[in-house]
Amino acid sequence: MKPAVHALGDPLATAPFYAPAGNECALFELAWRRGLPLLLKGPTGCGKTRFVAHMAARLGLPLHTVACHDDLTAADLTGRYLLRGGDTVWTDGPLTRAVREGGICYLDEVVEARKDVAVVLHPLTDDRRILPLERTGEELAAPKSFMLVVSYNPGYQSLLKALKPSTRQRFVAIEFDFLPPAQEVAVVATESGLPAERVRPLVTLAGRLRALKGHDLEEGVSTRLIVYCASLMVAGLPAAEAVLAAMIEPLTDEPDVKAALIEVAKAVVG
Ligand SMILES: Nc1ncnc2c1ncn2[C@@H]1O[C@H](COP(=O)(O)OP(=O)(O)OP(=O)(O)O)[C@@H](O)[C@H]1O
Ligand SMILES: [Mg+2]
Question: Is ligand 1 within 6 A of the CB of residue 43?
Fold first, then answer.
């Protein structure tokens, strides 16, 4: 596969750091080349957003990220008429901007969005690749370089919020998970500046805490939290305090569960 061509510098060197777990970078680039939309699923803090930022930079594409929430409507994505000095002016939303520019539109936690969002995504995510703007009467054909990427965390999904098959089946999908320990140590060391030998016990602890998911914990500790913990240690906080603040308190409000987690942490980190 030929790498993307760029006028400025080496995009791999300047892209945000991302350590791949497998062939996801090649798969992303192939999907982009073939005009296929991509769905990323996986637990919180495992690298989905970083992956998209990395690939956008590598491919030299503008990136429009939207954090979806339960009030997000189709008009928030496509745009609306706004009052400006007495005039009503059409203002593109992030999805429309990405289509016009031929960039990437990344909808984070897409299952949260209101149902009418599917109506604008469907014609854009099948072979038509069009964005109808009802309000302006325009119908934008997405340029070749446009790509839609969505992500969600299957763990939080309620039946009410699940993506409909007619939506899911418009995407190529990649499942994300936490990296294997040796790679996760390398990522946390790079991100925080803490030496690998001091990161290692934190990653071991994360593995133990992740094993409690579903029993005492709703969600296992994320790579993001291990990076926070390591950053606090680099700044001089003793390990036990950093672990409590970054890897235990954010996980639970239950005193019993917290006490049990502290015991696990003492056994692993000291
Ligand atoms: N493979 C990776 N390469 C580089 N950094 C990573 C990787 N995985 C996780 N990280 C680190 O973990 C942090 C959290 O990752 P990110 O924000 O991409 O998670 P996410 O999967 O988008 O989570 P959420 O679902 O909560 O949005 C990053 O800021 C980065 O420091
Ligand atoms: Mg994210």
Answer: no
